[in-house]
Design a protein that fits this description.
The protein has helices at residues 9-16, 51-61, 73-76, 78-87, 96-103, and strands at residues 23-27, 38-41, 64-70, 92-94, 108-111, 121-125. The radius of gyration is 13 Å and the shape is globular. The protein has 129 residues and is of the alpha/beta class. The protein starts with 8 loop residues before the first helix and ends with a strand. It has a 6-stranded mixed sheet. Helices cover 32% and strands 22% of the residues.
Length: 129
């Protein structure tokens, strides 16, 4: 058994398969899940695991070259906005409807238990060298 890192076998396996440029949508329980991408649903109950816990855990495992979130996060969810701004100084913002369109191109969707609006981010994988 692994001692550290991501223990969820479905998520660990999905992350190992990602390559440069692949998209990962980290979303709350209200975000529509697009058809097509692999989905790892971590939601246990409302708020568990939180958006922050999942984003922080993923950033321990991934190199991210671009992050995109909904413009609406700034007005509707100050905590998620602060988290995203702290992790991604060059955060791209698009209208929520556009984020939903972009998420259809993701290779992986990770659903959190977050139950506050606009706690969603689309990550584009980078490389470590």
């Amino acid at each position: 058994m692994k001692r550290a890192g991501i223990l969820n076998r479905h998520l660990a396996g999905a992350l190992a398969e990602l390559g440069h440029g692949d998209g990962v949508l980290v979303c709350d329980v209200g975000m529509p899940i697009p058809a097509g991408p692999r989905v790892v649903d971590l939601a246990f109950r409302a708020g568990v695991p939180s958006f922050a816990e999942v984003v922080d855990g993923l950033l321990d495992e991934l190199v991210v070259e671009q992050a995109t979130a909904a413009t609406e996060v700034r007005g509707a969810n100050a905590e998620a906005a602060a988290l995203l701004d702290g992790h991604f100084p060059a955060l791209a913002l698009v209208p929520h409807e556009r984020l939903k369109e972009l998420s259809a191109g993701a290779r992986l969707v990770v659903r959190t238990g977050e139950a506050r609006p606009y706690a969603n981010v689309l990550l584009r994988c980078g490389v470590f060298f």
